[in-house]
């Protein structure tokens, strides 16, 4: 609660106490004046009619606690309520009580009203702060601090403004760094692709028929290494584009079977080399909305990982389904499996499991996860050593 509000409330309470005290002093003064006047008149009349009455008898009369029957006064036509100062004092007390109750109610009402105004103002400030935070989340760093005061919530707004300025500067630096990294990777990839392409063409021109078995193996190994370098360069370039937020997804509605078929084409050679059968099941009419080409990229990387960890002469199952909430693809292999720790880090960039192939660079699944999440999806993995691994992909509608 801010100091200004507390001070205002203390001042109002103090003011009401002064008014209350002043009114009670005034009330007591009227009451005492009427009471003294009544007693003086009473004693004067008694002494006038009975000069022989002693001082002790008067004091005894004033101090007696025995009430006489008021019917005696009525016989003489005396109405105490109208003709007596004592009853005027009672009226003053009643009026005073009513006024005191009114003042107390008024004081409580004013305090409650002030609390209402304070809470209303506080809620308004909190909504402004909430709007500030929403704008920051949306990337809008233009915050108004001209209306800020020294109140608690205004101090909080000032602190948010300071943090916002810092975040803006950091975001700008990070954006520039990402753009620089993207540009550098693009330059590097172009510079590497030219000599790699030249090497591949020269290797293709070498007549394997004229080579010995050992030399043919060397040529095959060189080609495989060059393919791995190409794959690494392409994936690094794609990741850098995602990091720099320079990729624009073109979302369309397509069938899941088409996505799966195109992805399988990209890994057919790898599957054939290990004699792995890929089995697809699901309703042929199942659909999803997303960027078709990029989702092929993500599913291809997942299938490549499953083939890499699968045993020879095994199988990979791909199941797909659709409902009102999401479209789902399940990819299951019967390979080596992985530990809980490995499954927890499998999507980390450049992470390689214990049983991973020496050619693996650990960015395929990280790229797949990034692509899936950009299309309003998420991926999780379940795995057991010696049994296999299951990837579950859901695209929320």
Can you give me a brief rundown of this structure?
By secondary structure, the chain is α+β, with helices and mostly antiparallel strands. It folds into three domains: about 5-135, no CATH class; about 150-245, Orthogonal Bundle (Helix Hairpins), CATH 1.10.287; about 250-395, Histidine kinase-like ATPase, C-terminal domain (Heat Shock Protein 90).
CATH architecture of the largest domain: 2-Layer Sandwich
Q: What's the domain count?
A: 3
- List the strand order in the largest sheet: 2-4-5-7-6
Helix content: 55-70%
Which fold does the CATH topology of the largest domain refer to? Heat Shock Protein 90
Annotation field: number of helices: 11
Average pLDDT figure: 76
How many DSSP E strands? 7
**pLDDT below 50 for ≥5 consecutive residues: which ranges?**
none
The general outline is rod-shaped
Looking at CATH, the homologous superfamily of the largest domain is: Histidine kinase-like ATPase, C-terminal domain
Report the span from N to C terminus. Answer: 45 Å
Global Rg: 47 Å
Could you give the order of the helices and strands? HHHHHHHEHEEHEEHHEE
From the helix content, strand content and strand pairing, which structural class follows? Answer: alpha+beta
Largest sheet: 5 strands, mixed
In CATH's first tier, which class of the largest domain applies?
Alpha Beta
Strand content: 5-15%
